[in-house]
Amino acid sequence: MADFAPVVFRLALTQGDPCGIGPEVVVKALQKWQSDLPCPLVLIGDPAVLQEAGRRFTSGKTQKFLSAAVTLGPGDPLPAPEQAPLVILSVSRLDPARLKPGAPGPEEGKAMRAAIEAGVRLCRGGGADALVTGPITKAAMLAGGSQHGGHTELLAELLGVERPVMMLMNDRLRVVLATTHLPLAEVPKRLSAEALLHLLRVTDQGLRQDLGIEKPRLLVAGLNPHAGEGGRLGREDQEVIAPAVARARAEGIAAEGPLAADSLFARALRERADAVVCMYHDQGLAPLKMLDFENTVQVTLGLPIVRTSVGHGSAPDIAGQGRASPQSLLRAAEWALKIAKRRKGVMIG
Length: 349
Fold this sequence. Notes:
This protein has helices at about 20-35, 45-55, 60-65, 105-125, 140-145, 150-160, 185-190, 195-210, 235-250, 260-270, 280-290, 325-345; strands at about 10-15, 40-45, 70, 85-90, 130-135, 165-170, 175, 215-220, 255-260, 275-280, 295-300, 305-310. By secondary structure, the protein is an alpha/beta fold. It folds into 2 domains: about 1-160 and about 305-349, Isopropylmalate Dehydrogenase (3-Layer(aba) Sandwich), CATH 3.40.718; about 170-295, Isopropylmalate Dehydrogenase, CATH 3.40.718.10. Strands 3-4-2-1-5-12-11-6-7-10-8-9 form a 12-stranded mixed sheet, sandwiched between helices. Mean pLDDT is about 95; it is low at about 1-5.
């Protein structure tokens, strides 16, 4: 019988906003893992920023581990994962002494985008099996020249995907967003039956492919109080959401809605629904993060690469203070590895 070498997976992790808690949670995650990494890692960001974060927020053992990492520039060849368990891929040359905690500028915004671009290139080129992103600051990304302030929109551009789907989840609930970072007044204008049908299709397929759920059950929230109450509280529920759900059901997708959001989440927990589809950002994320903030992670559905992220922002109010928890990053890495293995047909224990 022939011997088969085990498949070695590698994750790419971006540091996020260098002025936020991103570098801190990255080095604290390394400290949690210590010498028992979940798999080889490529940290993408600024070596000086990461080394300084290690000096400030971790033990001597973690600092030595960081110092021993293979440091590469953007054009350098990536060593095989078996030869380099920890690589730092440099995409910027920032001075840690000049960074202002919680106040990134255009240069830091450029560094954030450069790290995301490098992570996408790695995954597309086979250098990494999944991308795990640290928290960014949208205003700095835009100030640095990016047309997109958020990860999801930028990833869509870089990967040529028209409408990827943002899903956030923890061990108790999964939430999918029909709209993401918009003023509330803009939400009704952005909703359409076609876009919602696309979202339901991508969600159904993503839950099957990436999470191994054989027949996903989706509960769809209404936009208005009481799901519009027959049109008396708004017509979007009847004219936009209901037709999309009906078409999805006709295609065999187990979707139900529009449902009144005030009781929907209790029902989703009670009945163990596979995901709740929400019409706007805070409708879904407020209950999700109330249930379990630290273990909430983001998974982007509908991409040709595996991408997960922390479920929190760059936390400018506590940046540089050593108070940030790496738990969401640890869970995001765990999920990235699980999904990458599932996509490659590796049995998950």
